[in-house]
Every structure is written in structure tokens, then in C-alpha cells.
Write a structure and sequence with these properties.
By secondary structure, the chain is an alpha+beta fold. It is built from 5 helices and 5 strands, in the order αβαββββααα.
């Protein structure tokens, strides 16, 4: 049994290693944003007439997507007497759209941040409810990697418990690391 648990522990640990490295890199970038000032986003403007006139934000997004201009999830819809505006986001790119009903014109401001911006936004992307199937697949992958990480932790604890001579030192280290982790979580959340 010990051999099987050890093999599962090693296989899953290797499977999540690259994923954890990418998450660590994005967390480092978020914590040390000032080191990445050179990766500032670029902005492009475009204007297009949408025929036939869309009636709601989802139809506007679909019409603009049909022209091959943008992809992503719809956010922050604001309506006015003249038209509406909203954001469409995907990792690394944000589209700010202003649609004027009278002229059937959509103005699209595209802000692209490159590789590091994409990695940063992928860190924040979760769930499987996205408009783009690739983003829903990413959410599923994150969930799977989280489950693998939990299995690695549990199998590691089980193997440690089976080694009688290391229980006292391991217990002390486990207790200290749990206290430090909880304190860090509280400090990060509370401020």
C-alpha cells in the first residue's frame, strides 16, 4: 500500500509542478508589479457600423465577434439615453465598447498587455461559465489541479504518519507551517 501511495504522490506532484510554477510566477508578478513596468499594455481604437442593429449587449458582442475583432466575457454593462457601454475581457486583453444606437456604431478600444498580463489575468480567472470554451476548459483544469494538490497533500501526510521516527519533528513543522499560513491569510485579507 505504501508503494502505491508513494507512486500516486510522486506522479501527481510531477503533474502539477508546471502548473504551480506558472501560478507562482503570476503571484510574484502581482506582488511585485513595479518590477514589470516595462510590460505596459498597448491600446488600439477601432470603429464599426453594426447591421442589423443589435438590441442588447450580447447581440453587440456577437456582431463584433463575427467581424473577428474580439473575444472574451461580457462585464460592466452601462446604459444611457444615447446607447450603452461595456467591457469584454479575456486573459491579456480588455475591450472597452461604446455603442451608439442612433448611428449603429460601435467604438472598440482594445488594451493588450502581452504575456505577463495574460498570465496575471489567468490567475484571476475561475469557474466554468465563460462565453469562450477555452476559458471554461481553463477553469476545469484549475479545479483538477486543485484536487491533485489536495491528494498530494493528503498522501504526503499519510506517508509521513507511517514513518514513526519522524512524527514528532514532522508534527512540530506541520503545526508551525499551519499557524504561519493562517496568519498570512488573515494579514492578506484584513490588511
Amino acid at each position: 500500500m505504501y508503494q502505491l501511495v508513494r507512486n500516486v504522490h510522486l506522479a501527481l506532484g510531477l503533474a502539477i509542478a508546471a502548473f504551480m510554477l506558472a501560478y507562482s510566477a503570476s503571484a510574484f508578478r502581482m506582488g511585485h508589479y513595479f518590477l514589470f513596468k516595462w510590460s505596459s499594455p498597448t491600446t488600439e481604437q477601432s470603429k464599426m457600423v453594426l447591421e442589423p442593429a443589435p438590441r442588447d449587449p450580447r447581440e453587440i458582442v456577437a456582431a463584433i465577434r463575427a467581424k473577428g475583432v474580439m473575444a472574451g466575457d461580457l462585464y460592466d454593462v452601462e446604459t444611457s439615453s444615447v446607447g450603452l457601454s461595456f467591457l469584454v475581457r479575456r486573459p491579456g486583453t480588455e475591450y472597452r465598447v461604446s455603442y451608439t444606437v442612433a448611428t449603429k456604431t460601435a467604438e472598440v478600444s482594445t488594451k493588450s498587455g502581452g504575456f505577463w498580463e495574460m498570465i496575471d489575468k489567468m490567475h484571476h480567472t475561475g469557474g466554468t461559465w465563460h462565453d469562450e470554451p477555452i476559458m471554461s476548459a481553463w477553469g476545469t483544469f484549475v479545479g483538477l489541479m486543485s484536487a491533485f494538490l489536495a491528494v498530494v497533500a493528503l498522501t504526503g501526510l499519510w506517508m509521513w504518519f507511517k514513518r514513526n521516527r519522524e512524527r514528532r519533528l514532522g508534527g512540530i513543522l506541520l503545526t508551525v507551517s499551519m499557524i504561519v499560513s493562517v496568519l498570512l491569510l488573515v494579514i492578506v485579507r484584513v490588511g
